[in-house]
UniProtKB/TrEMBL annotation, chain A:
Official protein name in the record: ABC-2 type transport system permease protein
Alphabetical list of PANTHER family matching this protein: INTEGRAL MEMBRANE PROTEIN-RELATED, MEMBRANE PROTEIN
Record's keyword terms, sorted: Membrane, Transmembrane, Transmembrane helix
One annotated Gene Ontology cellular component of this protein: plasma membrane
Organism: Evansella caseinilytica
Keyword Transmembrane set for record: yes
GO MF annotations in UniProt: ABC-type transporter activity
Pfam families in UniProt: ABC2_membrane_2 (PF12679)
Signal peptide: none
Transmembrane segment boundaries: 14-35, 75-96, 117-144, 156-177, 189-208, 236-257
TrEMBL record, chain B:
Pfam families: ABC_tran
Species annotation: Evansella caseinilytica
Xref: InterPro entries: AAA+_ATPase, ABC_transporter-like_ATP-bd, ABC_transporter-like_CS, ABC_transporter_ATP-binding, P-loop_NTPase
Gene3D superfamilies: P-loop containing nucleotide triphosphate hydrolases
Family, similarity comment: Belongs to the ABC transporter superfamily.
Keyword flag Transport: yes
The ABC transporter domain, residue ranges: 4-229
PANTHER family recorded: ABC TRANSPORTER ATP-BINDING PROTEIN, ABC TRANSPORTER ATP-BINDING PROTEIN NATA
Name of protein: ABC-2 type transport system ATP-binding protein
Keywords attached to this entry: ATP-binding, Nucleotide-binding, Transport
PROSITE patterns cross-referenced by the UniProt entry: ABC_TRANSPORTER_1, ABC_TRANSPORTER_2
Amino acid sequence: MIFKRELKKNSKSLIIWLIILSALTILLLSVYPQFAQDREAVEQLLSAYPETFMEALGMDRLDIGSVIGFYGLQVYLYITLFGGIYVAMLASNIVAKEENEKTIEFLLSKPVTRSQIIGGKLLAVITNIMIFNLILGVVSIIGFQFTDEAIPWSTFSVLIFGAILLHVSFAAISFLLSAAMRKTRTITSLSLGIVLFSYFINVISAIAEDLSSLKYLSFYYYIDAAAIIDEGAIPIIYIVIMLCVTAGCIGLSYVTYNKKNIAV
Amino acid sequence: MGVVELKSVTKNYQGNRGITDVTFTINEGEVFGFIGPNGAGKSTTIRTLLNFIHPTSGSATIFGKDIVKESKEIKKLVGYLPSEVHYYDDMKAIDLLKYSAGLHNYHNDKRIHELANKLQLDLNKKIEDLSFGNRKKVGIIQALLHEPKLLILDEPTGGLDPLMQNIFFDLLKEENKKGVTIFFSSHILSEVQKLCDRVAIIKEGELIKVEKVETLTQNNIKKVSLLLTKEANLGLNMEGILSKEKNGDDYQLLFNGEISSLLTMLAPLEVKDILIEEPTLDEIFMHYYK
């Protein structure tokens, strides 16, 4: 019941996000063939950019002359960054909203346990993330039809897997905040802050050599498109870290929510 | 065994008035009043019973089930109407009620319409467009819908006009006849008197006493305000005067006894103005239930 209700309630914002990001994906990928044709001109143009700018976007390591490199630089950036923002907003609202709007008094007076509430809402978040990435994956594949180039499908699937992992990790952190705290506005700001800060750290650490060890603090570094395209895989250790953060946050969400005094 | 049994329940929590060592029992089929001024701990007690908040110490059972460990089982049998109803803005009244029925696994949709008819509620309006009173009706229906064995009502009449209050009370009496136990919290003495068999009186987080309503009504306490023309030496030593306060020519009495003997006593005095009224709960508590 709670799962179904949350899916329905959040479907509108999912659809809006998907329409915008799908349109952006198609638009960007439709530009690629021309981009590839005038490759020399483009490279010349890019060389005019300052080096730090290239580093910040990972353009020094990505071969934007191949379709997957182009995808990694452009589309993947939007999917991971905007996707991170989307899931942070979704997960930070989903539990605390009931307290903020005092509807939790209704829900708790019904024969459901708190674990069922957390479980239903968590499942709704994860389902939304899966739908989000599945649709954008399909849209990307459609977008690839603009070029005749062969697509390295295994690299492409690792990229999608990385995006899902990133989204789930950010969602888990936001979800924990949502379960533990009360004020949705604070929670949303905090969650968005974590996502943007994480992105920012990744950019900074790429530019400034002194700060390069900071990169390990950023999930964005873990799923860096250039590294994935180079290696064809995400290092196991990064996957383990993200899964541990996710599992830890989910576990803590259950524990804190069950202990919480809910008086509205 | 009582339907609701509290044993030395204490709840302290920050920012809110807690309750201290509250013990009472509600019997099956009873309409049990729970009365006290605002902020006395009524809602805290109810929220503890429903496990929204966890007791600091003590224990309680509903239908013999532990309120913390078996909360889900308890809620299958309980209908709860909060003092302020808040529902999902995106839902129509009918959606909310179907959601509620679904959570209870209750499938008799006919009852939604029966109850809505009785309370004259338009089910197809969005909840956010409903007036305060109509929202309360949605609350009443979701509390009664799944045919609970125990109703917990926290200040249920707020926002209902007198006509609707009567309809609501009739509904409650009907349910009570079917054997439903009712726990009725209020700060209005008269509505508790109308409906309840026994009442628990709570003040500043402590249970003062549990009493039969008849006893309360026998205590026919009146508040008498007098304005006398000149310094009259008001003897006022007659039986039944619980307290007196003098402020210039103004006198304030709390009187418990025969009204006619009060009038006899007042007759020889030069009274410029007189007001005899129901005392507020606070006044009763202050002077009577010390």
